Q: What sequence folds into this?
């Protein structure tokens, strides 16, 4: 670095910031609107938010997912108990969504295993393939052929017919 600086090219900043001289006695409207906004809108919102945050830090509540109590199955409802019918239907829909997610998770694990293993997928992903086959068979046995508008009653009737067919096949086998 050279010793002789060119002071005109690189000017040293002033040591003190000069005070601006007001040329008018009228207050600046921007300052008025900023302070009005601060007191009218910002201060109450900030106060409420800080109060909520203080309340939340005192009362820690860990919420992961909603847990519903198990309700009686549709077969356990009394005749004419429409509230029980409704609760059983809602329980069936939740169970169906859970079973769909289980099938989807197992399917995703299977796809990840296939992606990871490449050409060796048939021997290294045998457990995942078997698990996927079991899960999809169980889902198909319970919810298959119900369609989009399936409900707890049609699912119960399907299970009843399947049990009757199994019982009939077992009796024919014994005979």
A:
């Amino acid at each position: 670095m050279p010793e002789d600086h060119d002071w005109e090219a690189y000017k040293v900043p002033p040591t003190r910031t000069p005070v601006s001289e007001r040329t008018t006695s009228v207050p600046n409207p921007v300052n008025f609107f900023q302070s009005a906004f601060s007191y009218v809108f910002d201060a109450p919102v900030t106060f409420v938010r800080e109060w909520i945050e203080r309340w939340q830090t005192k009362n820690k509540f860990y919420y992961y997912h909603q847990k519903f109590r198990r309700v009686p199955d549709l077969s356990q409802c009394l005749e004419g108990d429409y509230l029980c019918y409704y609760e059983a239907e809602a329980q069936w829909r939740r169970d169906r969504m859970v079973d769909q997610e289980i099938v989807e998770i197992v399917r995703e694990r299977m796809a990840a295993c296939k992606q990871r293993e490449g050409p060796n997928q048939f021997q290294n992903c045998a457990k995942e393939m078997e698990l996927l086959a079991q899960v999809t068979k169980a889902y198909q046995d319970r919810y298959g052929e119900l369609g989009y508008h399936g409900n707890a009653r049609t699912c119960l009737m399907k299970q009843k017919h399947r049990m009757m067919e199994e019982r009939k096949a077992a009796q024919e086998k014994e005979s």
Summary: The chain has a mean pLDDT of 87.
